[in-house]
Amino acid sequence: MTKIFVAGSTGYIGKNVVKYALDNGFDVVTAKRHSDNKPGQLNKKLKVIKISNNDNNWIADLEKVDVIISCLASRTGEPKDAHLVDYKLNCLLLEKAKALKCSQFILLSAICVQKPRLAFQFEKLAFEEELKKSGLNFSIVRPTAYFKSLSGQIENIKKGKPYVYFGDGQITQCNPISEKDLSLYILSCIKDKTKWRKILPIGGPKQSITPKDIGKILFEIFEVSPKYKSFPTKLLDAIRLLLLIISPFSNWAKNKSELIKIAKYYATESMLIWDEKKECYDANMTPSTGKDTLRDYFYSIKNLDLQLEIDRDSKLY
Fold first, then answer.
1. N or C, which end of the chain has less CB nearby within 10 Å?
2. Cα separation, 257 vs 246, whole angstroms
3. Mean pLDDT for the chain?
4. Domain count, the chain
């Protein structure tokens, strides 16, 4: 059986890649600072390398594996963080893969790198280039958007607050993919030769939606009267300009400026395939996979909330 190492196994996608890899019978190795498992609960096909400090010595402890899957990503997207994680840490992992003579390196990247303007995008692209010229068999997976990243306003909606978007709520579109469908797609790259030595943009089932569409779905599912609040994208420009003025005297302002730049990017750029010839995003050109839809995901959150209410009520009697 193929033995894989999953880097970034505590992250949103990484932990799901580990879960579905174990479900499908793979031997899995991960590296963690803290174990999620109590004694006796650790899956026999899972080996965990203990990270004891903040350096990268744990990479040296990595023993023979067949495939490395990197789900590493900087938490903030700020330039320093992006360079250390999206580029440097991945490069260290790549060198280890060469030393171990791994048969394959699978990288979780992002579809937004096709129109790079942000620090973390350039760092991701720089590593993609290192991977492509490494001589290893590679697959570079570029997902569209995650369900989790589109669910941040649920609690506000449940409280009767408005759904917030930029412009008219239809500036951008995305074709989001669930953590399960993305994880299974990543794992499919191990045996599917048609996915080798390729860049693989991928979304979920054809469901290209705008922010306003997402709001409508949420109001319908949680049975709340629709309320919307719009902000002009120029507001982000104004905030960033102010921060740039201050940034020569403040690292805080410099970092916040990059975060506002990231927010502006996602407020104005669609997470779909960019058609260079037509100079537009194209939902039809965006590859899709899986069965899970964003609507299903929101329903699962509602059902979980209802179950928690039932459990709480039952404890009162």
1. C
2. 10
3. 90
4. 1
